[in-house]
Amino acid sequence: MAQQAVQKNTLYVGGLAEEVNETILHAAFIPFGDIKDVKTPLDQATQKHRSFGFVTFLEKEDAAAAMDNMDGAELYGRVLTVNYALPERIKGGEQGWAAQPIWADADTWFERQQQEEEMQRIQAENQAAMRAAEELHRKKMAEERQGEKEDETEMKDDPMAMAEAEVSKQNN
To answer: Where is the sequence biased in composition, kind Basic and acidic residues (predicted)?
Structure first.
């Protein structure tokens, strides 16, 4: 997925309470600097905002200060999430042109789906290989431990071997 440019003077504000409107949002953010625009996109069915909004400051520095101070702050009993906003995408195509039909990016959508499926397949193969390697390692370790137990059993029958093992332990 192509990395979208961040708009450094527009903030995404998530976690808005139902009572919060554009006026309240404006009032909450105005202490940080001059605000150019406030938007709370509405849900077409309910005509209520979808618990997030956008605040655009005239100055990038003011937006940065607002983000630092308001991310995690509480407004009407809800904790806010404040980040830099990604460029607005109007329905229809990856470029976001309103004149572009909604199916315009269908070809690239299928391509992205195939790439994602390929990535998931590769991840699954890698995980399976890791599990197999771990299992092999566990078996090897178990065999080595079994071999040590056999060595100890053999030593019990051979007092000289036990004495040599004791001396080598003390020297290490």
So the answer is: 132-148
The answer to whether the pTM exceeds 0.70 is no
Residue 71's alpha-carbon distances to 108, 156, 165, in angstroms, are 35, 68, 64
Q: What pLDDT, in 10s, does the model give residues 23-65?
A: 999 999 999 999 999 999 888 888 888 899 999 999 999 999 9
Which secondary-structure segment (H or E) carries 21? none
d(CA 39, CA 16) in angstroms, rounded, equals 12
pLDDT confidence bin for 100, thresholds 50/70/90: low
Strand order through the sheet with 52-57: 35-39, 52-57, 7-14, 81-85
Measuring CA to CA, which residue among 61, 3, 47, 49 is closest to residue 23? Answer: 49
Angle at 20 between CA 17 and CA 22, to 5 degrees: 140
Sign of the torsion formed by the C-alpha atoms of 62, 66, 69 and 75: positive
Classify strands 35-39 and 74-75 as parallel, antiparallel or unpaired.
unpaired
Q: Which residue has the tokens 């470029």?
A: 95
Q: How many angstroms separate the Cα of 70 from the Cα of each of 74, 93, 163?
A: 8, 33, 72
Per-residue pLDDT of 73-86, as tens digits, reads 999 999 999 999 88
